[in-house]
Amino acid sequence: MNYKHIEFKKKYKNLLKSGKKKCTVRKRCYVKEGDEVFVHCGGKIIGKAKILKVEEKKLSELDEDVAKAEGFSTKEELLNEIKKLYGNLDKVYVIRFEFEPFKKPVSPEEMYYGSENLKDIAERALRELKLSDEERKILEMFVECGSVKKTALKLGGIWERKRVRELLRKCYKQLT
After folding, report:
1. Under CATH, domain 4-106 is a member of which superfamily?
2. pTM exceeds 0.90 for this model
3. How many CB atoms lie within 10 A of CB 151?
């Protein structure tokens, strides 16, 4: 199964594991009802979640129920966090999920690339694989900055992580 990913700040780890955090409010949405996603928190994959419901809502439509499911005490706390993260928005996506923690967190690299170092994969791919100009540019950027996140930001935004990860996985498969 090809899993999608959803990332949380480290501060939400205990809320996720305790089951108090049952939803997330996002500026963008790449998941749909029924999707199974890996849950990243603090640089590790700490479990997986099944997406139960996705709703597009106006910020003004968020209520205490959403705030509690998000792990906040009040709607005001939730709205303050959204504003801090995203600035002023008109609409958001409320993503409700069922979280299943792993017994032991897993590094994304270990899950997808075995024990191989990502930088080594990128360097080998640049030397050994036939790549498009775009793929070459992304891998060179990755080798230079050494991070999926930093590469994504250079490509235009944090949401570009998926493209970087997919290219590294593709190269890893071709090299092994």
Report:
1. Hypothetical protein. (2.30.130.30)
2. no
3. 25
